[in-house]
Amino acid sequence: MPLMRIPYTAPLPPPTILPTSASTLPGAVAALADFLRPPTTTTPNGKTVILSGAGISVASGLADYRGSNGTYTLNKTYRPIYYHEFCASHEARKRYWARSFLGWTNLHKSRPNKAHHAVGQLAEMGMLSSVITQNVDTFHPKAHPGLRTLELHGYLRSTVCLSCRTEYSRESFQQDLAALNPSWAVFLAEMLSSGALSTENPIERRLKGLKTNPDGDVDVPGIEYTTFRYPACPACLANPPSGTKVQQSADGAWQPSSTAGVLKPAVIMFGESIPDPIKLAVEAAVDEADRILVLGSSLATYSAWRLVRRAQELGKPVGVANLGGVRGEEQFFAKVGAGGVGREGVRCSLPLEEILPALVERLAVGCGAPGMRTEMFRPAPWG
């Protein structure tokens, strides 16, 4: 059965913090420390798989979907492009690539933040087995190249041909778009010099007349996209697949008379099936780990939610550190007591760029003592 990336749009309930001590930064750090370091006699692997979402990249200046400044929160009419629309419509592709052209510069300049680097430090301590990320920003591979990262929804660093599957650098593709659309290139330069694109903060961009969405999408109200042009796949242009034709204008723009050679971002668009090799790899990563820790994701896409459900069905503890609600979280923590210490499960709702570096610092203090108890001191009940 194909596994597709489908958004979940129903309202999410507020989180129930577990254990209750995890409502504060020290309490959340203590609970997560216990979660990551359970007694070694019952955990032969002893390692955690991370599942990360857009929330971990917010501190890098990128937009998310459901946070307080997220796209679904501030832009009620936002609707992402779907895979079938991109494949079927030349006009839809013009619109997509024009908006991506405007948003790419700042997305490309953005860098991993403290939370990404803390994940790498946790791996160096031997706590983690791998990272599964829904993000397409390449921050995890950049921040911790030595830790295996599985990119569930692909990546924006490349484009890929729908016909021959050849990949090309998105940075080079940006240069091709600029050459094919000189007036748009001038417009982009003007926006950059004015500071209109100097921030990914959606509130600041709205004050400048822009709407910003995840994955480098910039909407300029009132602008027409019909004049925008994009190049054809060079490989298909040189050697069209059997039974197809690829045509371009004199200056290199893909022509709608073509039947192949369309380039798309190397991301899994909404409504697109996740390739079987990736599907099997992320399932294996969950199966091999002893527990799963969700960082910065509301699990609003089924492709991510099902991995946490899979872990739970296999009897693995679940931890979630996410600002705001998470899809179906009540079932993940139904057996986790409010008065626990974090070993059986954790649910906290604090900024990852604060909690993860603090967690690294706490674990570093006691990393030489396997199995050491890390829960917070509690006064005696008769005190």
From TrEMBL:
Keywords noted in UniProt: Metal-binding, NAD, Transferase, Zinc
Residues binding Zn(2+), per UniProt: 161, 164, 233, 236
Superkingdom, taxonomy of origin: Eukaryota
Domain Deacetylase sirtuin-type: 22-366
Pfam families xref list: SIR2
Family: Belongs to the sirtuin family. Class I subfamily.
Protein name: Deacetylase sirtuin-type domain-containing protein
